[in-house]
Amino acid sequence: MSNPTAAILIIGDEILSGRTRDINMYHIAGTLSSVGIDLMEARVVSDDKSAIINAVRDLSKQYDNVFTSGGIGPTHDDITADCVAEAFGAHLSVRDDARSLLKAHYESQGKELTEERLRMARIPEGAVLIENPISIAPGFSLENVHVMAGVPRIFAVMVDKLLLRIETGNVMSSETIRVDLPESAISSPLRKIAEDNSELSIGSYPFEENGGYGANIVIRGFDLDAIKTAVQSVRQAFDL
Amino acid sequence: MSNPTAAILIIGDEILSGRTRDINMYHIAGTLSSVGIDLMEARVVSDDKSAIINAVRDLSKQYDNVFTSGGIGPTHDDITADCVAEAFGAHLSVRDDARSLLKAHYESQGKELTEERLRMARIPEGAVLIENPISIAPGFSLENVHVMAGVPRIFAVMVDKLLLRIETGNVMSSETIRVDLPESAISSPLRKIAEDNSELSIGSYPFEENGGYGANIVIRGFDLDAIKTAVQSVRQAFDL
Which residues, at least 6 apart from A39, have a Cβ–Cβ distance to it below 8 Å? Predict the structure, then answer.
C-alpha cells in the first residue's frame, strides 16, 4: 500500500515579492516526511482570488491532501476561506462553533468580538475545524483541503493538531553519503547502482564548498536492508 | 504597460522531503522584484518526468517567463533538459556549441570529456544557451522557459546572465510600516485605506514577537506620491 500524497499551497505575496523567505513549506516538508505522507508538490500563489481558486481545484484533484498556509486573518487581503469555499461551491458564513471559540477568547481578554474579528469565524458549510491553541481563530478542513494560518508558530501547531486525525503512512528511511567528487566523476557508477536498486530512490545533490565540488548521495526507501546494501555499493564505488 | 510576468519551477526531491530548505526561490523572488518582472507563482515538483513536463507546459502557457532550477547535472536523476525538450516537442542532443565549452573547460583542467560529462552538453534544438561562468555546463532558454542549475551560487550567476537579455519592467516601490497591534484591531481602518488606494497593493503580514502580535503593513506601487499619501493614512489611523 502506498502512502497518502499531499501538496502544500502557500498563499503569500510576501514570498513572491522576495520580502519574506518561506519557512512553512520547509517545516511541513519535514513534518510530513516524519509521518509517511508523501509531499509531491509545493506551490506559492499571490493573494489573488482566481489564482487561489485554480490552485485549490487543481491540487485537490491530484493529491490526497492539500495543506494551505496564510490568508485566514481578519484583514482585507485575507481571502483564503472565501476562495476555498468557492473552489468547492460551499456556502461560507459565520459558524456557531467558531464564533463561540472566538467569543470566549476575546471575552477572557476583556475585548469585544467585533465584526472584523468575527470574520475569522467564517467557516465553509461542511468543514471540520482545525484547532488553533495559540491565537484561537480556527482553521478548517473542507473535503481534502486543510486551511491553516500563515504565522509560522501557529501554522506548525495547527499542522500537529491536524495530523492527529488524518491518515498517515509508512516512514521512509534514508541514508546520506557525502562524496567529495564532482558529479561528473560519480554519475556513471551511480547510475548503475540506481538501476540495480530500482525499489529505492537514489538522488545526487551537488554542492560547492571551498571552491571544490561534491555531492550528497541520498538513498531513500522502506527496506532497511536494501538501503544498507546500496550504501555499501556507493562506498565501494567511490573508495569510501 | 504592465510588467512581464514569471513563474519559478524548482525541481527538487530534496526540498519536498524536507532535507533542504529552499534558497533559489527566495533569491530569484528578490532579484525579479528589483528588475520589474512580476513573479506570480512558484512551484516545487519532484524529479519525476511527468510532473516536470506538466508543470513546464502549464506555467509556460500562463506566464511570460518560466525559470527552472535544478536537474541539469550529469547524474541519472538529472532529467530537466529531457523534460523541457519533451514539453515543447523539441529534439534533444549534444550540441556543438555546448560541447566546445565543456571540452575547453575539462581540457584546461587536464580532464577528459567523458560520455557522462557530455550529457551536460545536451541542449534542445532551437534553444539559446545561458552562460555559466562558474562550472561552465550551460543552461538554456527554450521558448519562454529558462533552465538553470540548482546549486545556489551557480543558479544566481546564471540568473544574472539571463537578465541581461530578457525583457524587464518597471520597479515597484514599497514602504513597510510596523504596527504593534493584532490584525483584528487594525483590519477595519486598513480595509478602508486599501479601498481608497486601489492602484496600490496594500498587504498586512502578521507576526508574533515576545508573546505579542503585530503586523507589517506593506504598501507597493509605481506612484511614489500615492505611496507617501497611503503611508500617512496608515500612520494617522494607528497614531504612529
Answer: A5, A6, A7, A8, A28, A29, A32, A33, B16, B17, B18
Residue among A33, A184, A208 minimizing CB distance to B116: A184
Give the pLDDT confidence of A94-146 residue by residue, as tens digits.
Answer: 999 999 999 999 999 999 999 999 999 999 999 999 999 999 999 999 999 99
Quick one: how far is CA B61 from the chain centroid?
16
Tell me which chain A residues have a C-beta less than 8 angstroms from the C-beta of B203.
Answer: 13-14, 47, 77
For B28, name the nearest residue in chain A, comparing CA atoms only.
A18
pLDDT digits (tens, 9 = 90+) for B55-76: 999 999 999 999 999 999 999 9
Say what the pTM is: 0.95
ipTM for this prediction? 0.94
**Measured distance CA(B123)–CA(B98) in Å, rounded:** 8
Residue B183 main-chain phi, psi, to 5 deg:
-55, -35
Can you tell me the distance from the alpha carbon of A101 to that of A121, in angstroms, rounded to the nearest whole number? 9
Strand partners, A212: A209
Taking CA–CA distances from A134, the nearest residue in chain B reads B211
- Residue A89: all three cell numbers together: 461551491
Contacts of B134 in chain A (CB under 8 A): 208
Contact B153, B166 (CB under 8 A): no
Distance between B14 CA and the closest CA of chain A, angstroms: 8
How far is the alpha carbon of B89 from chain A, nearest alpha carbon, in Å?
24
A 10 A CB-CB count for A94 gives 14
Identify which of B16, B183, B195 has the shortest CB distance to residue A42.
B16
Local structure of residue B166 (DSSP, 8 states): S
